[in-house]
Amino acid sequence: MRNVISNVTSSDVSDEYAEQVKELIAAQNPQRETTQVNEWGQTDFRVRLHTYEAPGSGETMWAVDYSDPVVREVEESDSQTEADARYEALVRDGAENLGTDDDGLQERFAVTDVDGVPGPLPELPDVTPEHVEELLDEAGDPVLYLALDDDGDPVLRIGQADQVDSDVTVLTRSQVLDELRLSDGSSRVTAEHAAREIHDFAMETSLIAHARTATVRRTADVLFTVPTA
After folding, report:
1. Across the chain, which distance is largest between two alpha carbons, in Å?
2. pLDDT of 102
3. Is residue 77's pLDDT more than 50?
4. What angle, 0 to 180 degrees and rounded to 10, lies between the N-to-C axes of helices 129-137 and 173-180?
5. CA angle in degrees (0–180, nearest 5) for 118-92-125
6. Count of CB atoms within 10 A of residue 19's CB?
7. Could you give the strand order of the β-sheet that contains 72-77, starting from the edge strand earlier in sequence?
């Protein structure tokens, strides 16, 4: 592939040709795209694959447009296979620089079509006050956990602690009792009992549920692991 635009090395084409290609790709949607969003919600990493008729010759060309906070490069080829390979190589290189965020969660691309790299998570379910009450009323040693339904979508379910992997557990009945400052005595605490004992039971269960947002996100990293070669 040849360099058309670069701020780190010399170009292999004329300035006029480079400017024409720059205008062509700016005016079209890419064939393929991978992006990453930073902590301020700005896209600061992008790899795109474009195709167009070369200025002057009219030959079908393929270009890989790469940009990060420091580098901008556009490389061009008359081979789609070569351009696809270059696009995927740059995405995989970018994936190697993904780590964990301040909350210890896996950093992921916002958009990608490359297999084996950390892509975006699907929409995740919310823990609700109803889940908290269900845990209180369920027999045994119940836990709320994240699972995948038959369509592969994430859902929250209640199961018994000895049958659920701790890595996908979001909330346990014991945690609920601790946070409500209640304990089972001669009779088991139920949601109805807790509502009588606690002045603002609805608010307390809402706070418990809301506090599990990060736990659901962390658990999702277990279910949606990045494939390895």
Report:
1. 87
2. 78
3. yes
4. 110
5. 10
6. 14
7. 2-6, 72-77, 60-67, 43-53, 32-37
Query: Cα dihedral angle (169, 170, 174, 180), rounded to 10 degrees?
Result: 180
Q: What is the pTM for the complete model shown?
A: 0.76
Six-digit token pair at 51? 């195709």
Which regions of 54-190 does DSSP assign to beta strands (E)? 60-67, 72-77, 142-148, 154-160, 169-172
Calculate the average pLDDT of the chain. Answer: 93
Indicate the SS3 state at residue 116. Answer: coil
Angle at 109 (CA atoms; ends 108, 110), nearest 5 degrees: 115
DSSP tag of 102? T
Give dist(CA 192, CA 134) in Å, integer: 11
pLDDT top residue among 101 and 215: 215
Q: How many residues does this entry show for the chain?
A: 229
Q: E strands along 68-194, which residues?
A: 72-77, 142-148, 154-160, 169-172
Select from 137, 133, 1 the least CA-distant residue to 73. 1
Instruction: For residue 32, give both structure tokens.
Output: 């393929």
Lookup result for tokens 């024409």: 20
As a whole number, mean pLDDT of residues 74-100 equals 95
Q: For the residues 78-106, what does the mean pLDDT come to?
A: 91
